[in-house]
Amino acid sequence: MKSTREILTEVGGQHVAKGVEKGLQALDAKLGKANEVFYKKPSFWIRLALAGLCIYASTKVREPYDQTLLAKGVHYTTTFWDDLETFFSK
Q: From the CB of residue 6, how many other CB atoms can be counted at a distance below 10 Å?
């Protein structure tokens, strides 16, 4: 059975990443890029960099930070599928 700390460590990173994702969407809107193709948005490239950085950093830090960073990095990679879905649904 997992402790509350373990659960919060695993899912906390995803919640932080979601907040960052929303902030990046606001940045796109502020820069007038919200309606651009996903690869022309600053948020796409920032999320891509954050994904790689978080996943890499998760291999270099100790528990419980490794799980938190991994969860953040994986969340950023899943937003790529959202971008593709939007791109192909137009």
A: 13
Please give the Cα distance from 32 to 37 (Å, whole number): 12
pTM to 2 decimals? Answer: 0.85
Q: Which DSSP state fits 41? A: S
Length in residues, the chain: 90
Q: Amino acid identity, residue 53?
A: L
Residue with tokens 């919200």: 34
Tokens of 78: 């899943």
What does the pLDDT look like over 48-69, one tens digit per residue? 999 999 999 999 999 888 989 9
C-alpha separations of 76 from 2, 18, 45, 54 in Å: 25, 8, 11, 9
